[in-house]
Amino acid sequence: xxxxxxxxxxxxxxxxxxxxxxxxxxxxxxxxxxxxxxxxxxxxxxxxxxxxxxxxxxxxxxxxxxxxxxxxxxxxxxxxxxxxxxxxxxxxxxxxxxxxxxxxxxxxxxxxxxxxxxx
Length: 119
Ligand SMILES: Cc1cc2nc3c(=O)[nH]c(=O)nc-3n(C[C@H](O)[C@H](O)[C@H](O)COP(=O)(O)O)c2cc1C
Prior knowledge:
Layout lengths: L17 E6 L4 E6 L2 E6 L2 E5 L6 H9 L3 E3 L6 H6 L10 H4 L4 E2 L8 E2 L5 E2 L1
Antiparallel strand pairs: 1-2, 1-5, 3-4, 5-8, 6-7
This protein binds flavin mononucleotide (FMN).
The site of flavin mononucleotide has 20 residues, from strand 2 and helix 1.
């Protein structure tokens, strides 16, 4: 098969968008992340790739915590919008009717409306 050589870049697709929540009691935020997945099952290790320019980046660096929330169909549009609006400008929990819930292992809030929350 003839190969086409592309300039270097991250081109794997499709990617599963999730809602990532972060922060603590004082400040919290949500943003959309597609660059996520499994690194290891034993021990269980996951990852997210976050641009330093994101409002969430500092919170995650400072707390060392985040939650991956899987997105139900009913929140598809919210997931899209959380990926274009910044927590610098709006409170995304309030704006989109999402409720923070207490986790078991981290201070970062879970999103109550999401059925699966990976702390
Ligand atoms: C479908 C989708 C996937 C995204 N995936 C990522 C990602 O993997 N990493 C990232 O840093 N930003 C990603 N973004 C962009 C951020 O979600 C977006 O810049 C967001 O507004 C950042 O919010 P914040 O400034 O409140 O942290 C994605 C956006 C969309 C719409």
